[in-house]
Amino acid sequence: MADFIVIGGGVIGMMTARELAQSGANVTLLERRQCAQESSWAGGGIVSPLYPWRYRAPITRLATWSQSSYIHLADELIDETGYDPELRQKGMFMLSVDDEAEALNWAQEFHRPLRKVDGDFVYRKEPNLAAGVESAIWMPEVASIRNPRLGRSLRQAMLANPHITLVEQADVTGLIQKNERICGARTSAADYYGGATIIAGGAWSPQLLTPLGIELPVEPVHGQMMLYRAEPGLIDRVVLADGRYLIPRNDGRILVGSTLERIGFEKRTTEEARASLQRTALSIMPTLQDYPVEHHWSGLRPGSPEGIPYIGAVPGYDGLWVNAGQFRNGLVLAPASTRLLSDLLLGREPVVNPEPYQLSGRVIMR
Q1: E-state strands within the chain
Q2: 184 burial level (CB within 10 Å; 0-12, 13-18, 19+)
Q3: pLDDT tens digits for 180-236?
Q4: Is the peptide bond before 298 cis (omega within 30 degrees of 0)?
Q5: H or E element that contains 58
Q6: What DSSP line would sit under 320-338, residue for residue?
Q7: What's the predicted TM-score (pTM) here?
Q8: Quick one: which of 165, 181, 183, 198 has the most CB atoms within 10 Å?
């Protein structure tokens, strides 16, 4: 029997397993497909909430802790696995911001490096942006990470860790219950028992709680993105405009995203979204018209009210915990979310106040 069962092999689940295993605990991770193939793969990898001042303080606290930890995490994963998750700490420009005063006030309150800059500053750093930029909000410490490579390096780190048992292609069909205690998880192939069971299944997390009479307000929010095959140096920083963004990679590829669609668990790409994303890309950087679109895909985010995740014990059941609902900020919040849950599970001093993320009072008990 493992000390912990983790259900879900996205970045949240893998980081949770890794964090617990680093304490010496034995962890079994169950993933219904292959690790990091859902929203962890499909996202853009900006290590900051978009327009961070528009989020509530609990998200800022998690994001701030996570942002400072990614440099160490990336270095550790390279040492452990040889896979570079490609962390780029180049900064982020936000164009056409209507609530600049709120942004500056937020930066002062939370001591974040954010300032307003003029168009000359923007074009000195990004000369290929569309003409007409007169000012922007600049966050010089914002990083991006190449999320498919992050997923691959985390998966390899788990395979190399003797305290972690990774079971993929294991679709969890239910939880193993004895009275009011959850003892593990049941799959079509086998039962897995653990001292504590952690649900980290992203948008699919509520499905495991519904049979227990618990309604977790997490829903799938569909998003579509595209990738341009461009050349290195065309753009070096994340650029955000009107809620959409361009994200450069080291090899020159440029991501453009993303849509927000509430259509349930359906995943599909549409010509309408493709055209819309292309318009966004060209409005930010017209020279992209000279480069081909290499890929167009979609994924499902775990949407939650106000984007505040659920991290903590499930009320009414011993041995059952949740780490889900990070919405658009799964990669941003992952290090802090997993560290916080691990602190709670292991009886350590929490890195942030856990109260805003607890399930009590935020889920419906039936």
Answers
A1: 2-7, 27-30, 87-88, 92-95, 115-118, 135-139, 144-145, 164-167, 172-178, 181-187, 191-199, 214-215, 219-228, 238-241, 244-248, 254-257, 293-303, 310-313, 320-324, 364-365
A2: buried
A3: 999 999 998 999 999 999 999 999 999 999 999 999 999 999 999 999 999 999 999
A4: no
A5: helix 57-81
A6: EEEEE--GGGHHHHHHHHH
A7: 0.95
A8: 198
